[in-house]
Write a sequence for this structure.
């Protein structure tokens, strides 16, 4: 549960909606909010500041999804190990 006011998938418009679509892998902008998929709280926490949200998503894209040079499989393995060590439920 997030204690910070966030923009839900249903309320998202403009830049926030675009970033939500990108974060969930749904690039088409004409999708209904139900089709966006669930946006992680770690993304939503930046939603009240769309400029920051966009910057964080650009950073995430630059270091994940195979862009790090490690390859997507290794990135996912590292993410699982770090989540396990930190007892993260994501």
């Amino acid at each position: 549960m997030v204690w910070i006011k966030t923009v839900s998938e249903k309320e998202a418009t403009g830049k926030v909606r675009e970033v939500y679509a990108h974060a969930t892998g749904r690039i088409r902008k004409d999708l209904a909010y139900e089709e966006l998929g669930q946006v992680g709280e770690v993304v939503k926490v930046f939603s009240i500041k769309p400029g920051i949200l966009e910057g964080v998503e650009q950073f995430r894209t630059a270091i994940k999804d195979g862009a790090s040079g490690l390859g997507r499989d290794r990135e996912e393995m590292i993410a699982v190990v770090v989540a396990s060590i930190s007892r993260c439920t994501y």
Q: What stands out?
A: The radius of gyration is 14 Å.
